[in-house]
Amino acid sequence: MTSQRQYRHGDTGPAVAEIRSKLATLGLLPPEDPRMDPEAMRSAKFDDEVDLAVRQFQQERAISVDGVVGPQTYRLLDEARWRMGDRLLSYTVNHQMVGDDIAALQTRLLDLGFDCERVDGIFGPDTERALREFQRNVGIPADGTCGPRTFKALDQLSRTVVGGAPHAMRASESIYRAGPSLTGKVVVVDPGHGGSDPGVVGHGLTEAEIAWDLAARVEGRLGVMGAHAYLTRGVDSDIDEMARAEFANATRADLLISLHVDQHDNGEPNGLATYYYGNDRYGHHSALGQQFAGLVQREIVARTDMLSCQTHAKTWDLLRHTHMPAVRIEVGYLTNAADAERLASPSFRDTVAEGIVVAVQRLYLPPEEDAPTGALKLPIPT
Ligand SMILES: [Zn+2]
Fold first, then answer.
1. Ligand 1 centre from 242 Cα, in Å?
2. How, if at all, do strands 284-285 and 205-206 pair?
3. Which residues lie below 8 Å from residue 36, measured CB to CB, with a gap of 6+?
4. CA distance 76 to 320
5. Distance from the CA of 262 to the center of ligand 1, in angstroms?
6. pLDDT, tens digit, for every residue of 328-371?
7. Which residues, chain by chain, have CB under 5 Å from ion ligand 1?
8. Which among 294, 326, 299, 325 is positioned nearest to 310, based on CA atoms?
9. How far apart are CA 154 and CA 137, in angstroms?
10. What gap in Å lies between CA 51 and CA 8, rounded to an integer?
11. What pLDDT, on a 0 to 100 scale, did the predictor assign at position 365?
12. What spacing in Å lies between the alpha carbon of 377 and ligand 1's midpoint?
């Protein structure tokens, strides 16, 4: 299956047969006959039942629910088949292992107090470090590889699950230790879409252009504050979400801010929403991502007359594959006349940029030095 191909309601063929069998393995479709002949493969249908199962899967995984199997949904379907103990797990620099078995391992490590940073189903250096620490603690060779002995040790230690709170506390302590100054902090600003992908088009505006303009304003303000701001794309370039994530990781950014505007089939929905990495259903999320998203949401709402559509946990590629606290901001709906009118105004865009940069500053302020929402004033770029 090529990465760009999408499968949806009405499609038929071997790729649909593969999707059906993956959904059946996960219990989202009734079990299928494993010895499917080529004729049955060719006539496999993406019908109502498959559409519903795909939507259910997308809902469970906290990605956009559209019933379409595109690259991200396909990859997640593939990862979902792994159960802990199915294979050896280890850190490989060039091609990191991903899968539900790794998410299960990370949850177990965090619950036992070994800090692998977060549950993202990706076996990275933090997971390896936490795993070695666990292995040392239980007296088995600390090789950083999760094999039969480690699985057994993890199984035997059935400590009561405490949940995410102690982990969240450690994360916010470390950000205050970083100090309140933005000087030297690296922030990657990601204008959504671009190039051949305009994003949402409505009321004479395009999402890619708005995102670009907002990003440039945020970049300018961050520069005034002494931070290094980098944009993920040029004004007209085409770049996918994974490449944006890799760019942010390569710059060793402290924060990532992704800028988008939303759309809806009818013109009614409007307002501002922010997203951070996580999945409420499984009870895990990036604590700092959530804190940062909450600050962005409050600072923009306090400065504008936009409706607050709240902050939400999602596992979109850009949020999941970046190592730093990341927030995606949907600045209103371009399909809504009032939001489009707001977005057309340069002074509105400037106010949004101010709200975002104030949120960045507040993230690094210890609670006792922090100002009330909407009250912090920062220098304006000239
Ligand atoms: Zn977008």
1. 15
2. unpaired
3. 17, 21, 44
4. 12
5. 6
6. 999 999 999 999 999 999 999 999 999 999 999 999 887 667 77
7. 192, 199, 260
8. 294
9. 11
10. 7
11. 83
12. 29
Judge contact between 331 and 260, C-beta under 8 A. Answer: yes
Using CA atoms, how far apart are residues 302 and 113, in angstroms rounded to an integer?
38
- Tens of pLDDT, residue by residue over 269-316, are 999 999 999 988 777 888 889 999 999 999 999 999 999 999 999 999
Q: What is the pLDDT of residues 73-89, one digit of tens each?
A: 999 999 998 988 899 99
Distance 260 CA to ligand 1 centre (A): 4
Q: Where would I find the H helices in 3-99?
A: 14-25, 38-42, 48-60, 71-79
CA-to-CA distance for 355 and 258, rounded, in angstroms?
14
Query: What token pair was written down for 94?
Result: 């060039």
Element (H, E) at 168: helix 165-177
- Tally of CB atoms within 10 A around 155: 11
Q: Which two tokens stand for residue 174?
A: 């470390």
Lowest mean pLDDT among 36-45, 129-138, 351-360: 36-45
Say how many Å lie between the CA of residue 330 and the centre of ligand 1.
7
Q: Could you tell me the distance, in angstroms and rounded to a whole number, from the CA of residue 56 to the centre of ligand 1? A: 22
The rounded Å distance from CA 341 to ligand 1 centre is 18
Q: Which residues lie across from 186 on neighbouring strands?
A: 228
- Least confident interval from 52-61, 79-88, 156-165: 156-165
- Quote the ligand 1 centre to 321 CA distance (angstroms): 18
At 380 the pLDDT is 62
Quote the CA–CA distance of 313 and 324 in Å, as a whole number.
15
Ligand 1 center from residue 192 Cα (angstroms) = 6
259 alpha carbon to ligand 1 midpoint, in Å?
8
